[in-house]
Write a structure and sequence with these properties.
4-stranded antiparallel sheet, 4% helix, single chain, mainly beta, Tachylectin-2, Chain A
């Protein structure tokens, strides 16, 4: 164990996938009953297909809120446009979203296209980009009872194909009939073979057919030729096409046989059955085939499979205070202060190393957690062993009289109530200005048992620590709802005349990994939070390829592939990790490996360290501290054991 890892403990106050050449075949997919969301499958040869794990967009629009018949087309600007069936019956439109990477999607919209009709449904919307008119076509099937002779069809199951066009997916042309083949038809997909040469592959949905045919046209808007004879067996639907080694492959869902079939052709007149040659993953239902860059496909595969997990064989024994773990050699346990009456609850220490000196601040309450008045204290050290006496960094703050939390405590109003401090992130060293900024958050505890991390606080404050040991003024960098410059005791940071200080604060607000640590104190649902789910006590680090790992209380973990702006949800318990309700801290070490420090038991003891070569697979577990210090002062919510660690390099 040659890594140096400095941890500060609160309650005791102790200091990849292989790269592929070229684009990849990708197909949209869904699984019955179509309520889980968008899936993908991929292939390097168009013949052998495999699943991309997980779902990437959960259906949220439409009467039924399903996601069937997913269709994607890539626009000239690299944007992937996506449409889908959102209900079996009752909807007069379809769902729409777009993405640059197939992982992060715009808010879903419902696009109504059969508004002034008695249509029963809007099924299987299919996208096609017309590179001549530089616009998108959306094709779908609808049944308007009585519009066409029913013949053998049920009155509410006699479909025809319709279309609309758009250049921006905001305004759409009037809906028009695309083809009248003389039979009920659904599931159309379109191919452009060359100039003035278009092929439509569609399902004949009449009772004696239920198979797939083709029609031809000089434009994507028709007129269309008479439909061909069927080239697939009965009970086949959902065709999609791909150009593979000089052949057009038409894949289809042979739904009564519960298999996926394929035909290939060079002219759409003569077909060869390839059902025994192609292979598709179990559960795949029809979508649209398109080409995507290898890096994008690689990221799709990694997105739902990468996760922090523990594969080591060592575990902590709950009957022993040290867990029975092998200790790390060279650990130094340093007490920085000793609690005295009047300030016996000391917690959430935050540490920084700046300009050759250690800085640590922590919150303190008179006797118990969430007991006002709360302040933040600061200590410094030149060597990590000898620490200065604590001084007040963020002072007492009076809650305005009349403040209330009506949903939690109806009729209860604050009167001569002091705020308490709470901080999940304490320091920020500005990359642009080099300034050291300290942060804390004023929250409100209406009763001794009130949880103040409910988004109903006052706001987050920031203060510069200067190299000579002096402090800059206290400013607010974030206000909770109901608070602003007019009703708070400190100014907003933008009022500072120090341009470098303002720039450093702007840098914090622009950093999603910094803002992520505000989740418990900030307003619920505030856009300042990259992930609005109130998981507790965030820490995170960067993997070698730039992806971010997030860790929270209870061993919850997830990842981000866009720098921390969005995260895969929900966060899940890290497989193999046993943790208490205390914080888990993770970071990248100076040699490029990774460490997590946490309590590997149902209690907040012992304190252990686990190491990983890649930041995802953790393989070791060793003891850092197994002491359970006796309680010297009474008070609520004082957990035993070494806990709430932070680390620095």
């Amino acid at each position: 164990m040659k890594k140096t890892f400095l941890s500060v403990v609160a309650a005791m106050m102790l200091p990849s996938a292989a790269a592929w050449a070229g684009d990849i075949y990708v197909s949209t997919s869904f699984h019955e009953p179509a309520n889980e969301g968008l899936r993908f499958i991929y292939s390097r040869d168009g013949i052998h297909w495999d699943s991309i794990p997980g779902t990437f967009l959960k259906p949220e629009v439409g009467t039924q809120k399903v996601m069937r018949d997913p269709s994607i087309v890539k626009g000239p600007d690299g944007t992937y446009h996506f449409v889908w069936t959102c209900s079996w019956r009752g909807d007069r439109g379809f769902g729409y979203s777009s993405s640059k990477d197939l992982i992060h999607w715009t808010p879903e919209r419902f696009i109504e296209v059969m508004k002034d009709t008695t249509t029963v449904n809007v099924w299987a919307p299919e996208l096609f980009y017309d590179d001549v008119k530089k616009q998108y076509m959306v094709i779908w099937a609808s049944c308007i009872p009585g519009k066409f002779p029913d013949v053998l069809e049920e009155h509410k199951n006699n479909h025809r194909l319709y279309y609309t066009t758009t250049k921006d997916f905001k305004t759409f042309t009037e809906t028009k009939l695309l083809i009248e083949p003389g039979f009920s038809c659904i599931d159309a997909t379109m191919v452009k073979r060359g100039k003035d040469d278009y092929v439509m592959v569609l399902k004949d949905n009449t009772r004696k057919q239920r198979n797939i045919k083709v029609a031809f046209s000089k434009t994507p808007y028709g007129p269309w030729s008479e439909a061909s004879e069927p080239f697939t067996p009965m009970y086949s639907e959902g065709p999609s096409t791909a150009y593979v080694n000089g052949w057009w492959y038409i894949y289809y869902d042979w739904y009564r046989q519960f298999i996926y079939g394929a035909q290939r052709t060079k002219d759409f007149k003569h077909f060869q059955d390839q059902t025994g040659t192609v292979s598709f993953p179990e559960g795949h239902k029809h979508g649209t085939v398109f080409m995507a860059p290898e890096e994008l496909v690689e990221n799709l595969i990694k997105y739902n499979t990468r996760a922090v997990h523990y594969t080591g064989k060592d575990i902590s024994l709950p009957a022993r205070h040290d867990g029975g773990l092998s200790p790390v050699v060279g650990v130094h346990t340093i007490q920085t202060m000793r609690a005295e009456k009047g300030a016996t609850y000391n917690h959430q220490p935050m540490i920084a190393y700046w300009k050759g000196k250690f800085y640590m601040h922590y919150l303190t309450d008179p006797r118990s957690e969430h007991e006002p008045p709360g302040v933040t204290m600061l200590q410094t050290s030149a060597d990590g062993y000898t620490w200065t006496d604590p001084v007040k960094l963020f002072p007492e703050y009076k809650v305005p009289d009349g403040f209330e939390k009506p949903e939690k405590y109806p009729g209860l109003k604050a009167k001569n109530l002091m705020a308490i401090m709470h901080q999940r992130v304490g320091w920020y060293v500005s990359k642009k200005t080099g300034k050291l900024l300290a942060m804390g958050n004023y929250v409100v505890s209406m009763t001794p048992k009130d949880n103040p991390t409910d988004g109903n606080g006052i706001g987050r404050v920031v203060r510069e620590i200067k190299a000579d040991g002096s402090f800059g003024p206290v400013y607010f960098i974030y206000y909770n709802h109901g608070f602003n410059e007019k009703n708070t005791d400190f100014p907003y940071y933008k009022k500072s005349k120090d341009k470098a200080f303002v720039k450093a604060c702007d840098e914090i607000l622009a950093d999603p990994m910094a803002r992520m640590q505000w989740a418990e104190e900030a307003d619920r649902g505030d856009d300042v939070l990259p992930l609005k789910t109130p998981y507790k006590a965030f820490s995170g680090y960067t993997l070698p390829d730039g992806w971010k790992v997030g860790l929270w209380k209870h061993g919850l973990t997830t990842i981000s592939c866009d720098g921390g702006y969005t995260w895969r949800t929900p966060a899940k318990r890290a497989h193999g990790f046993v943790t208490s309700t205390g914080k888990i801290w993770g970071q990248r070490l100076s040699d490029g490996t990774y460490a997590t420090v946490y309590n590997p038991a149902e209690y907040r003891w012992p304190l252990a360290i686990s190491l990983s070569a890649d930041g995802l697979e953790y393989t070791t577990l060793n003891l850092v501290n197994g002491e359970i210090t006796p309680e010297r002062h009474g008070g609520n919510y004082k957990n035993y054991g070494p806990q709430y660690t932070r680390g620095i390099q």
